[in-house]
């Protein structure tokens, strides 16, 4: 888990494993008081249950400072870290310092956006590296700097069993084969406000005409956030919902500009897109990492595509 500072999760897992009452603080927009959500497993189940196996918890971090902060106390210490750089797919941590966009409208990342791996290793917990580790040489390099391993997305997203719409996957592989596959870091696409990697493909939400044609709505609501209607009363809103609704809920209209419905777009990419009563079919959004060299090498060796097993073999150098 990442997308913030998951300081409460280790202790929450400790409590849940032995069926103890626990709570989690809520980040509520426009809050005038503190909010939390609680659970009493004994009251829910009637008690007398055997302890559960507590799962391991890996905190996703982009800075060594956060790793050190989480590890300093038992209550916040995870079992390890996934250290994610700005080239990783999906959401990225915002660039540190004053926001700067390049000529293509993408955030400019610099050396400060890469964690100091020596300092991460000095924390003393196992860590895995993410964002640009799609070859055996890169895996070996990660191990050399002290990592327990790597987290890989793009190589498996393009494999036969990934679950992506086969037509989309084949189109990406075709563009990759001729060096024309483009992955942009879109600073506005995600309703969360975090930069998000978007593959530029025809017929997807990466195209301005597709974005303009989509009726704005929010019905899956995975990324909506709570806001305070009145003290003690919460509502939910999303910058990708209809603009008038977001503004009516107290949201800033500037936050709605360029926002895309990742919830519907990503599910459409795995052939679970919703078909609307008015005949509109949800258009996909596709994400990959920005480092395409490893998958380009894989495609050169296996021009017909590859399986997950072959991807694992490649990473292990087999």
Structure notes:
- The protein has 318 residues and is of the alpha/beta class.
- Among the domains are: 56-159 and 308-316, Alpha-Beta Barrel (TIM Barrel); 202-268, no CATH class.
- It has 12 helices and 10 strands.
- The strands form 4 sheets. The chain has a 4-stranded parallel β-sheet with strand order 3-4-5-6, covered by helices on one side. Strands 1-2 form a two-stranded antiparallel ribbon. Strands 7-8 form a two-stranded antiparallel ribbon.
- Helix 3 packs parallel to helix 4.
- The chain starts with 8 loop residues before the first helix and ends with a helix.
Oligomer: single chain
Shape: globular
CATH class of the domain at 56-159 and 308-316: Alpha Beta
Main sheet specs? 4 strands, parallel
End-to-end C-alpha gap: 31 Å
Number of DSSP strand runs: 10
Strand sequence of the main sheet, in spatial order?
3-4-5-6
Name given to the CATH architecture of the domain at 56-159 and 308-316: Alpha-Beta Barrel
Record the SSE blueprint:
Elements: H1 9-17, E1 22-26, E2 35-39, H2 41-45, E3 58-61, H3 64-71, E4 80-84, H4 117-123, E5 127-130, H5 136-144, E6 149-151, H6 154-157, H7 166-177, E7 183-186, E8 196-199, H8 208-213, E9 225-230, E10 233-237, H9 243-248, H10 262-268, H11 293-301, H12 308-316
Short description:
This protein is α/β, with parallel strands linked by helices and 318 residues long. Helix content is 29%, strand content 14%. The strands form four sheets. Strands 3-4-5-6 form a four-stranded parallel β-sheet, covered by helices on one side. Strands 1-2 form a two-stranded antiparallel sheet. Strands 7-8 form a two-stranded antiparallel ribbon.
């Amino acid at each position: 888990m990442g997308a913030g500072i998951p300081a409460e999760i280790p202790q929450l897992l400790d409590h849940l494993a032995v069926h103890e009452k626990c709570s989690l603080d809520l980040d509520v927009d426009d809050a005038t008081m503190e909010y939390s959500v609680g659970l009493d497993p004994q009251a829910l189940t009637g008690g007398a249950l055997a302890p559960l196996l507590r799962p391991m918890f890996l905190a996703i971090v982009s800075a060594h400072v956060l790793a050190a902060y989480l590890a300093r106390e038992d209550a916040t210490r995870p079992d390890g870290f996934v250290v994610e750089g700005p080239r990783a797919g999906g959401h990225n941590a915002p660039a540190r310092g004053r926001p700067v966009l390049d000529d293509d409208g993408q955030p400019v990342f610099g050396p400060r956006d890469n964690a100091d791996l020596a300092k991460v290793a000095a924390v003393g917990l196992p860590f895995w590296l993410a964002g640009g580790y799609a070859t055996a040489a890169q895996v070996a390099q990660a191990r050399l700097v002290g990592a327990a391993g790597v987290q890989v997305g793009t190589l498996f997203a393009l494999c036969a069993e990934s679950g992506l719409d086969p037509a989309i996957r084949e189109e990406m592989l075709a563009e990759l084969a001729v060096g024309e596959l483009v992955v942009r870091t879109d600073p506005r696409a995600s309703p969360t406000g975090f930069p998000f990697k978007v593959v530029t493909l025809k017929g997807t939400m990466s195209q301005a005409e597709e974005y303009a044609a989509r009726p704005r709505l929010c019905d899956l609501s995975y990324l909506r956030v709570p806001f305070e209607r009145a003290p003690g009363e919460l509502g939910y809103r999303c910058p990708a919902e209809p603009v008038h609704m977001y503004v009516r809920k107290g949201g800033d209209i500037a936050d709605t500009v360029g926002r895309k419905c990742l919830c519907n777009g990503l599910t459409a990419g795995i052939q679970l897109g919703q078909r609307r009563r008015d005949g509109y079919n949800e258009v996909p959004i596709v994400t990959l990492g920005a480092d395409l060299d490893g998958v380009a090498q894989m495609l050169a060796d296996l021009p017909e595509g590859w399986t997950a097993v072959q991807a694992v073999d490649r990473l292990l150098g087999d």
